[in-house]
Amino acid sequence: MKILFASPEMVPFAKTGGLADVSGALPKAIEKLGEDVTVIMPKYQAVDEKKNTLEDTGKKISVPISNRIKEAKIYKGYINSQQSAVGSRQSKIPIYFIDKKEYYDRPYLYGTPQGDYPDNAERFIFFSRAILETCKTIGLKPDVIHCNDWQTGMVPVYLKTIYKDDPYLKDTATLFTVHNLGYQGLFWHLDMHLTNLGWDIFNPEGIEFYGKMNILKGGLVYSDIITTVSRTYSHEIQTKEYGCGLDGVLRKRKDDLYGVLNGIDYEEWNPATDKYIAAKYLKENLSGKWECKKDLLKIYGLKPSKEIPVLSVISRLADQKGFNLVAEIVNELMELDIQFVLLGTGEEKYHKLFEEIGKKYPSKAGIKIGFDNALAHKIEAGADMFLMPSRYEPCGLNQLYSLKYGTIPIVRATGGLNDTVENYNPVTKNGNGFKFAEYSSTALFSAIKTAIDFHKNKTQWNRIMMNAMGEDFSWSHSAREYVELYRKVINKRTKT
Ligand code: ADP
């Protein structure tokens, strides 16, 4: 099968969150299963042309946006995929970049800390249509376009409207993955002219959402198959509580909606090989983890102790992640015999909150506001516990990294956190972490205290670490599920 994987962000080129990690790893895992994968994304300022040896293909596309024709250049690079299914050769996945400086040559991907870029509708309507025009220009006829999040939501819409009789793309099917239903690409109705589509699709059955244009909804309504990134989240989003106003649309499409758990890239996140950490370690020999803890606490200006657990956070600082709960109990938390390290960036109110905590408890709390991949690896390796009290969490990757590094996750039982973290049971000795159900600071505090109590018992704690580090959340299983869905969607398309 010929798969085109379209994403607004991807490791190692440009990243704001988990979608970039998924986009960096999943195409490689699919290619390893013998499928023919190509990737496409915007050429942002962050995309380093020299380091990634990108070349200008010399090809150009022309994309209609309202009553204008906008041109863009197409760059090409390769992603190395090791141990391909096709013998042991090292294969290369082609990746195309849409080079449109007016839209993408900016310091951030979607907006500055002050807010979203005001022309995001135009930037990503353009991207969606540019994906289709690029196919035609480079001679790629995909069986399936795998779209990711609202920024690619217009691809399914265009394939079922403007391109439905296009000799080149009329048989192309779409699989649309929702990585986070909270980000919908919601714009005022007068941006409709940018799509070059008629008002006939602007209704509640199409892309209208209470008088506005909702691009994510376009993806949900017009794609052939919808997936989201964990089983639990696929059920949650069909409810009013988690559906962000789109639960009705999702219920309507429930027969085409699948939950496929994200995997993680153990080439990037593995304490046995991690190039960022102070000492490598294995499940069988944990001595390096202590070196990592010392290194981490030195960076944060805290004193290391084997007895005191380090509770850590790496996160976008957004309401979704449950920081209002942390805010409610932070003083009691600091009374406990723990140390706290945080790396994050996001909403201003949380920057302030955590900076104040850092000042108030200088010997217990270390706070770094910012985005720092190397430090994220050091935290995973050096901390003892990892906190994710999310209000909702489509999949969550950090708890999966934490498991691999023996850094025990304390999570709220929602979405992918629910599917990947099992409460430790001292009787059966099963379980890999601690979770709580109710979205309340009392429930959170109680889960943290339980974890701290278990940490005092070295035998029990060691058992939890072994359980955690023994888990396998590699992509191989989930990539197979995607390949099956690609087959399904192609069959579905040929039947209609
Ligand atoms: P989301 O996509 O909702 O932000 P995920 O847990 O799925 O959450 O993925 C977050 C990814 O972004 C992880 O790889 C995590 O390590 C990374 N990350 C988040 N915040 C930071 C930060 N401040 N510095 C470095 N990496 C970060």
How would you characterize the overall build of this protein?
The protein has helices at residues 18-32, 101-104, 120-138, 154-160, 215-222, 231-236, 247-252, 287-299, 323-335, 348-360, 373-382, 398-404, 415-420, 441-456, 458-469, 475-495, and strands spanning 2-6, 36-42, 55-65, 68-81, 91-99, 111-112, 115-116, 144-148, 173-178, 186-188, 208-209, 212-214, 225-228, 257-259, 310-317, 339-346, 365-369, 385-388, 408-412, 434-436. By secondary structure, the protein is an alpha/beta fold. The protein has two domains: 2-263 and 476-495, Glycogen Phosphorylase B (Rossmann fold, 3-Layer(aba) Sandwich); 287-473, Rossmann fold (3-Layer(aba) Sandwich), CATH 3.40.50.2000. The strands form four sheets. It has a nine-stranded mixed β-sheet, sandwiched between helices. A hairpin with a 2-residue loop joins strand 11 (208-209) and strand 12 (212-214). Helix 8 (287-299) packs across helix 11 (373-382). It is globular. Residues 83-87 have low confidence and may be disordered. It binds adenosine-5'-diphosphate. Residues 17-18, 21, 314-316, 343-345, 371-373, 376, 395-398 line the site of adenosine-5'-diphosphate.
